[in-house]
Amino acid sequence: MTDAELAAHLARCAGIILTQVRDSGMFEGKALGKAGDATANEFLCHALRMQRPDDGLLSEEEKDYSSRLEQSRVWIVDPVDGTREYGEERTDWAVHVALAIDGKPEVGAVALPGLDLVLRSDAPASLPSPAEKPRLVVSRTRPAKEAVEVANRIGGELVPMGSAGAKAMAVVRGEAEIYLHSGGQYEWDSCAPVAVALAHGLHCSRIDGSPLVYNQADTYMPDLLICRPEWAERVLKEVADIDRTD
User: Which residues bind Mg(2+) (predicted)?
Assistant: First the structure.
């Protein structure tokens, strides 16, 4: 099984497990989120250690070991991206499984169990035609200031959505043109989505245009931009202009 096949298989299986945990009726709300996180994390981490014992591992729900910094190949996973949405039984949550090689997001799979979909870096599809009016996916509760301002400047429409993975995959699937985030994330929030987005020909970077680098000692990632390539230059320019006028 290739790395990409493994990532996709594990993401799909974790999604099935999470759906079963939710459908068991034993948990609700925050308790459901905690149960799902713990169960999916145990499955993913155990499977990766069995299947790729020589690789490093970074998970949101697992103790972080500094030994990964000495490894070229590091799996980066988020067992439930969008725990709130999962707990509320919405569809805009995801499972992330990615492999970073020398800091680059080379392999990734993002499962959207609520939609019965797995998007993967080894099976890219053609991008759908863009909307005439650009759509920017933003947080349901805390839209990024820069995203709101960029939307105003380019005549865009804001589309509230849950998890980071769901937002990124909305661009891949043609439901939006731009995902601009500046509210702070961690490596597991974006590694798999970025790997999938890059494979589909999308632009992925920090909001200052610099590359996204993974497997760092500090796993905090302040911002990112995932968008259709035809929008990248304009959006980066607008963000730079906003920063200069603040």
Answer: 60, 78, 81, 189
List beta partners, residue 81. Answer: 94
Residue 196 CB neighbour total at 10 angstroms: 31
135-139 vs 178-181, strand pairing mode: parallel
Q: How many other CB atoms are there within 10 angstroms of residue 201's CB atom?
A: 12
Query: What is the pTM (predicted TM-score) of this model?
Result: 0.95
Does 86 share its domain with 142? Answer: no
For β-strands 220-221 and 224-227, DSSP reports them as unpaired
Q: Is residue 126 part of a domain?
A: no
- Does one domain contain both 93 and 166? no
For residue 92, say whether it is annotated as part of any ligand binding site: no
Residue 60, annotated as binding a ligand? yes
Q: How far apart are CA 9 and CA 188, in angstroms?
A: 18
Contact 170, 193 (CB under 8 A): no
pLDDT recorded at residue 196: 98
Paired sense of beta strands 157-161 and 73-81, if any: unpaired
**Is residue 85 annotated as involved in ligand binding?**
no
pLDDT in tens, 37-75: 999 999 999 999 999 999 999 999 999 989 999 999 999
122 is known to lie in a ligand binding site:
no
